[in-house]
TrEMBL record:
The keyword Ribonucleoprotein does not apply. Zn(2+) binds at C73, C76, C92, C95. PROSITE patterns: HYPA. Keywords: Metal-binding, Nickel, Zinc. Ni(2+) binds at H2. One of its GO terms (biological process) is protein maturation. GO terms for molecular function: nickel cation binding; zinc ion binding. This is Hydrogenase maturation factor HypA. Gene3D superfamilies: 3.30.2320.80. It comes from Candidatus Desulfovibrio trichonymphae. Belongs to the HypA/HybF family. InterPro entries: Hydgase_Ni_incorp_HypA/HybF_CS, HypA/HybF.
Length: 117
């Protein structure tokens, strides 16, 4: 499952940071993901909770923030967007063109914040 490897690398990064700063445990991790990144928030949360159980990080919080989709029309330059991938199939609000929209934001997957103790 995609989410397991995601949480693994997230915890790996957190542990490096914890080691580097001579801390003991993770308190909170914030992940920002694009609407097209394929992240299923509920599954990610579930994996996170399962994988920190019985570790020093048990009880840590996972904050998930979805970055909305932002598209740019290559024909008229209009930037538009939507909350999910359905927006990919909408015509450009500027010129009505259906295809070729460039994804400016939506594929990101970023560990944006770590709180450790
Ligand atoms: Zn357009």
């Amino acid at each position: 499952m995609h989410e397991i490897s995601l949480v693994q690398s997230l915890l790996c990064m957190a542990e490096e940071e914890i080691f580097r700063r001579n801390c003991a445990r993770l308190l909170m991790a914030r992940v920002e993901y694009g609407a097209l990144s394929g992240v299923v928030p509920k599954a990610l949360q579930f994996c996170f909770d399962a994988m920190i159980q019985g570790t020093p990080h048990e009880g840590a919080r996972l904050e998930l923030a979805c970055l909305p989709l932002r598209l740019r029309c290559p024909f008229c330059g209009r930037v538009f967007g939507g909350q999910d991938q359905d927006a990919l199939h909408l015509p450009c609000p500027g010129c009505g063109e259906l295809f070729g929209h460039i994804v400016e934001q939506g594929k990101e997957l970023i560990l944006s914040r770590l709180e450790i103790l």
